[in-house]
Amino acid sequence: MQRNNSYPTLRWPYASLCFIVLLACYASAAPRFRLLYSFKCNPGGCGPNGGLALDPFGNLYGTTPGGGNDNATIFRLAPSSGRWTYTLLHTFTLAEGSAIVASLTVDHSGNLYGTSINGGAHDVGSVFELSPDALTPGGWTLQVLHSFLNSHADGQGPWDKVILDRAGNVYGTTRDGGSEAAGGVVFELTRGSPGDWSEDILYDFPFYKRGCCPYAELIFDAAGNLYGTTPGGGTGNGDGVVFKLTHTASEWKETLLHSFQGTDGSQPMGGLVFDAEGNLYGTTAEGGKNGSGTVFKLAPAQGGRWKRTILYDFPLFKNGGGPASTLVFDKAGNLYGTAVGGIGPCPSGCGVVFEMSPDSNGKWTYTVLHRFTDATNDGAEVFSGVVFDKTEKHLYGTTAFGGTYNQGTVYEITP
Fold it and tell me: How far apart are CA 331 and CA 64, in angstroms?
């Protein structure tokens, strides 16, 4: 049959335009991944395990556990005309800290706060502050706020980031130490005279039934109560808990909000996040229907109880698994996080960044925004969570491996 060429200049350009428009629509809807920096050991740091922190100017700050002449480091990535400039801000001595895997916290003055698992005066961890040096342009000064004691009188091994209250006091957890069978502690550091900080142990985990060995950062509610997780202990099979600490006149009292039972999750390694209604959200690294972790919600109920809902069961690493980081909300109510598993060339998968979106019926849809492939322009082993910039147009995070030198990356995703 003869081809109809009646409208050769009308039909084909129109079809091309439709095709181009469809491609443009698809490109704008699909998440965009960009590699911002590839780490290279010595003299710079490498292998970042912790996430990133943003200052009001859009600079990114993070830590590496090693690579700075074999010592831990703090770095900054500064944006400029679409490019990012890496600056090594500090290389730690053993007396200051070692094995730093936590994210940093930035205060309103641009000071950075963090923790180290080892090192410090007694080699069981420290809390530090890195401040811009007013006398040296571009310089930074590190102060150790507290070196944990190698005794039952103190905690040992702070794993995650610290938080600040409005007065500038510092709060955090340690996974070991304490007087109640070394189940870890919740601590507060209070600022005194310039350069002087004092520590108070707010809660000493009594090992097992009340939770054990907290890894994650804490969060405050509007009333000043503290909330957190422990990956062990509880009233079940030791699968971990969600707890609340309430400040009374003379002490902080713990309330167990939930003890995991394995089938509903196990080993919550990440912290918690509130929504606008006061519900708590978090992840478990194991357990659930498929044994590879969950995303959960805890909602306040009558009588001081909390109702647990499983929002997502990770399907045996097919679309990620083993989430160990804290989630983050956007203003539309969507949740974002990372999981270390996922199909890929790595033994259990190289990790994913995911989004959880609610619908009007209260159900949540899970979407993989990016699947890491361990490539030179990509990354692998995503242990930390993601952070939004102030416009909520870009997510930022780190990988411990992958990149140009296979020593870790900083990446950006535009959802």
Answer: 30
Residue 32 near residue 363, CB atoms below 8 Å? no
Residue 243 CB neighbour total at 10 angstroms:
26
pLDDT along the chain (415 residues), means of 10: 34 36 46 94 90 96 88 95 93 95 96 97 97 87 96 93 96 92 92 89 88 96 97 92 94 95 96 97 96 96 93 88 95 95 76 94 93 90 94 95 94 94
Separation of alpha carbons 297 and 306, rounded Å: 9
Residue with tokens 């985990």: 205
CB atoms within 10 A of CB 263: 14
Residue 44, helix vs strand vs coil: coil
Report which of 68, 286, 270, 284 is spatially closest to residue 160, judged by C-alpha positions.
270
In whole angstroms, what is the distance from residue 287 CA to residue 268 CA?
Answer: 10
Report residue 286: phi and psi, to 5°.
-135, -175
DSSP reduced 3-state for 297: strand
Q: Which residues have CB under 8 Å from 253's CB, separation 6+?
A: 245, 246
- Cα–Cα dist 367/354, whole Å: 6
Phi/psi at 25 (nearest 5 deg)? -65, -40
Q: Are 63 and 92 in contact (CB under 8 A)?
A: no
